[in-house]
Every structure is written in structure tokens, then in C-alpha cells.
Amino acid sequence: MANAERGETDEPAAMRDRRGPEQHASDSFATELAPMTSLGIDPRGGWAFLFDIDGTLLDLADHPDRVVVPETLLPALRRLKALAGGALALVTGRGLGSADRLFGADFDCAGNHGATLRLGTTLDAVAAADDLLLDGIATALEPAIAAYPGAWIERKSHSVAVHWRRVPEAAGDLARAVRIAVAGHVRDWRLIQGKGVIEIARRDATKGTAVERLLASPGYAGRRPFYAGDDVTDEDAFQAVAGLGGVGVLVGPPRRTYAQYSCPAPEVFRRWIEALVEDA
Ligand SMILES: O=P(O)(O)OC[C@H]1O[C@H](O[C@H]2O[C@H](CO)[C@@H](O)[C@H](O)[C@H]2O)[C@H](O)[C@@H](O)[C@@H]1O
Ligand SMILES: [Mg+2]
């Protein structure tokens, strides 16, 4: 992926955040991934299936509201959920409402990069929101955004995301503006440089903590996690899943990752899910 799309660096932001001075970027990263086709998964075999949304289940689009949920995907996910005894959850950077608009509220969902969790109909706000701070940051960013028509701010319950997918040349300036806006708050807030976006998110909630929380929840506890994701924020989840004896699949072009398996594209991943439930 181009630097402009990720921001200014190829190094996963989630990694930079976590790494202490004594560690090196290559620690624990896989250098070669096994193809996902070499994975033998029995959907009834005690797995908990955890899927990222954008770039994993769904192809990326130029705006989060313009993604398409292929009509074969929902029935396949429902069937997989049934085969897995209900242990299927979405783990996304989107807010819960945004995820539910795409998938219905049929699936458990960890939203906002781990800051929120909905299990069935039970909403568990894992982390406290800080509306005052996030509103202030969003307001402070408005002039920088206005300089680049096509860039925009997504204000979520627990984060602010600045999108530049439509104006990749804005990546450097906008990332800089976000760093400045968040400068006095880095003790509690971190930056996630994703695909065409930079997000301000809580430090105490990640997709890794979401995985751990899910796997400690009724219906998931005692199962082996299977996690598929595509972006830097999924690295926290891959690491958590590895620690729980599970399997991580990186969807998209190979890169340094804590996942052990690879899948070239969301379309291939969807076909894998469909074949898995058809064969079961
Ligand atoms: O964790 P995910 O489920 O992968 O969600 C990550 C972010 O997804 C959305 O933005 C990304 O997808 C958009 C639609 O394809 C795309 O236009 C944008 O450039 C991507 O960054 C969503 O808007 C964010 O809130 C999520 O954090
Ligand atoms: Mg993703």
C-alpha cells in the first residue's frame, strides 16, 4: 500500500504504539504467511469467528456509506454463526450503528476499534466516551479539512476519523494537523493510520482488548479464535488471537504482520466463507 494511503509511514501505528524502546519492529512479525487455502477449518469445531468489516468482508469504497454488502454474504454469515453455535462477531473500527446498518443487528459486534461492544441486544460501552474532547478536536481540525475539498471528518462515538481517500495528496498535511490537534492528549488517546484515514482513538481500547473481551464472554469462552482483518488496527487482534492459541488471516497484500495466514482480497475471503458453510 502506498505511503499516502496509510499516512506517512508503512509501519503499523498499532505496532508503534505498543513497542517499547527495547523492542524492534521485526519482533514476532511473520515474514512468510501460509496461504489460507492450507487451513482446514471445521466450522463446528469449537471456533469463534471474528471478522473485520472494511477491507476484509467488504471491498473498500470511496466513502463508508458506499460499501456494498454482496447478497450472498449475509446468508453465509448467518449459516456460519449457526454452525459455530452463535460464536461469530464483527470487530470493526466503525461505530456499532454503522456496522448494524450494513449487517443488521444479527451479529455480535465490537465497534470503534474495541471501545464499544454489543453482545446480542446487550450493549456494553466498554470505554467512556469523551464528547467534549472529541468535539473540540473535530472543530480544531475543520480549517485543515476545508483546505482539501473531498476530505472529511467522521465523528464516531469514541473517535474522530479524518478521511482523505478522495484526496490522497492531503494525507501528509491532514496527518500533521491531527497530530497537532491531539498533542496534549496523547496519554489517553492514540492515532491509528488506516487506509485513506487517520483516526484518534482511545488507548485503553483496541481490537486486541475486544478479542480478549469477546473470548471471555458467554458463548465464546473456551473456543479457539479465528480472526480475519486487513489493516494496522487488526494487528492488535492478530496478536491477541495468537496469544489465545487461535488463527489470524491477513486479507490483502502481504506485509509484516502478526497473522499467520494470508488471503489476497475480500472477494476471495467471502468465497472462502461461502464454501466453508456449503461444505459443512
Ligand atoms: O475496522 P474496519 O471494519 O476495517 O473499519 C475501518 C474503518 O472503515 C471505514 O473506513 C474505511 O472504509 C471506507 C469504506 O470502504 C473507506 O472509504 C475509508 O477510506 C476506509 O478508511 C470507516 O469509515 C472507519 O470509521 C473505520 O474505522
Ligand atoms: Mg478493515
TrEMBL record:
<keyword id="KW-0378">Hydrolase</keyword>
<keyword id="KW-0479">Metal-binding</keyword>
<comment type="function">
    <text>Removes the phosphate from trehalose 6-phosphate to produce free trehalose.</text>
</comment>
<dbReference type="InterPro" id="IPR003337">
    <property type="entry name" value="Trehalose_PPase"/>
</dbReference>
<dbReference type="GO" id="GO:0046872">
    <property type="term" value="F:metal ion binding"/>
</dbReference>
<feature type="region of interest" description="Disordered">
    <location>
        <begin position="1"/>
        <end position="31"/>
    </location>
</feature>
<dbReference type="GO" id="GO:0004805">
    <property type="term" value="F:trehalose-phosphatase activity"/>
</dbReference>
<dbReference type="InterPro" id="IPR036412">
    <property type="entry name" value="HAD-like_sf"/>
</dbReference>
<dbReference type="InterPro" id="IPR023214">
    <property type="entry name" value="HAD_sf"/>
</dbReference>
<feature type="compositionally biased region" description="Basic and acidic residues">
    <location>
        <begin position="1"/>
        <end position="25"/>
    </location>
</feature>
<dbReference type="Pfam" id="PF02358">
    <property type="entry name" value="Trehalose_PPase"/>
</dbReference>
<dbReference type="InterPro" id="IPR006379">
    <property type="entry name" value="HAD-SF_hydro_IIB"/>
</dbReference>
<dbReference type="GO" id="GO:0005992">
    <property type="term" value="P:trehalose biosynthetic process"/>
</dbReference>
<comment type="pathway">
    <text>Glycan biosynthesis; trehalose biosynthesis.</text>
</comment>
<protein>
    <recommendedName>
        <fullName>Trehalose 6-phosphate phosphatase</fullName>
        <ecNumber>3.1.3.12</ecNumber>
    </recommendedName>
</protein>
<keyword id="KW-0460">Magnesium</keyword>
<dbReference type="InterPro" id="IPR044651">
    <property type="entry name" value="OTSB-like"/>
</dbReference>
<comment type="similarity">
    <text>Belongs to the trehalose phosphatase family.</text>
</comment>
